Amino acid sequence: MPELSNPDIVSFKNDEQTGGVSSKPVEDIEVKDAQMIFDSVWHELEKEVGAENLKFPAEIFWLNGAPGAGKGTQTAFIMEFRDLTERPIVVSELLQSPEAKKKIDAGLLAGDREVTKLVLRELLDPKYESGAVVDGYPRTKTQVECLKRFHRRLSDLRSKYLGTFQESQFPKPRFHIIMLFIDEDESVRRQLLRGERTIAHNKEVEASGVGTKWETRKTDLDDSSAHKRYKTFKESTYDSLTTLREVFHYHFINAHGTIIEVQQRIISELKYQSSLELDQPTYDRISSIPLAEQLSLHARQILVNRLDSYEKFHCELFEQVVGLIKSKFIPIVEKHSISGLAYINSEDAVLNDPLAIAMLIDVFTERGFTAVVDIRKMEVPARIDPKSFEIINRVKNVYRVRINFSGSKIRRG
After folding, report:
1. Which end of the chain is more exposed for a tag (fewer CB within 10 A), N or C?
2. 33, 141 Cβ separation under 8 angstroms
3. Residue 239: Cβ within 10 Å count
4. Per-residue pLDDT tens for 77-101?
5. pTM of the complete model beyond 0.85
6. Is it true that the peptide bond before 7 is cis, omega within 30 degrees of 0?
7. Residue 221 belongs to what domain range?
8. In whole angstroms, what is the distance from residue 265 CA to residue 263 CA?
9. H or E stretch covering 116
């Protein structure tokens, strides 16, 4: 496979204008290189498809990981979780395309510029309109800087066309950086294990003549090569991507453990992020409404505080509600212990106080039940008007309480 990154840039660089050396920091040089690379790629794409046709996915997941971290295994899960139907864009596969191979053979595929163009050009395919996963980009500091400029350019396009008939073609860009991480020892162990499995599989294919051989990676067959590959990842890709923590939503996934354990961490990381996925005016409008997870975080503590306050400040009413539950509700609930569901109607006057209803719900909640109260107003005959002989009705409240709980798991049949 061709070298994807530019040659290492040393701390000093030849300065042709002065005949000496320039003492510009390496970081500044990389930023400048990235700016030139990205501007060049963007200009070529504008000429190729037209500026008005630069329509990229609204949501892009940039996936990277340590060698052996399980990118291939977890990519399908990530796509299913986010309802993405198109297969991921894999940089190593882009470099094997007929177009890329033609450039490689001509000695034109030299580094970050060509890789960046291949990725952006692929992202223009309309099939990725709803979202895309890009596996293996960015991998170098220069590519990281290009990614920042890409997001900035998409944001500029969004601002430019906001309020016009083309607004829907340029959505707010949402970038997710996903890093599957394992430590060096685990990475080397998994690389070498993969090598052993590949050799065994290929021998079986040769012997049986059935199946397709797997690609053999040299780093999977040698301990020192596996360590070197991890060191390259850590010093180049990992360290570069950590600089994006403050720019995009950064999902750091601990990839140690079983596949299921890692997937649970992915689910936790990829939960809805409203500040990233909504346009700013929309987010500003609804952000004052708390997230469900924020409410549930301290729900138990808040419930306990409420119950204590009932006992302290509304002792008499609280005593009546608890007495009603014990005498009228619990006997009915016990009769429905197998199904775990009971409907109870009550006309008790104590429930006419809204605070009493809140107390009833909280007591059941603290005891492990789920209670929902529905108030129904019914007209019932009260008396007859002696002059008109019309029936005069009165309104009574009927409180219908639905109580859910874990039913019995007794064996049936």
Report:
1. C
2. no
3. 12
4. 888 888 888 899 998 888 876 766 6
5. no
6. no
7. 13-288
8. 5
9. helix 112-123
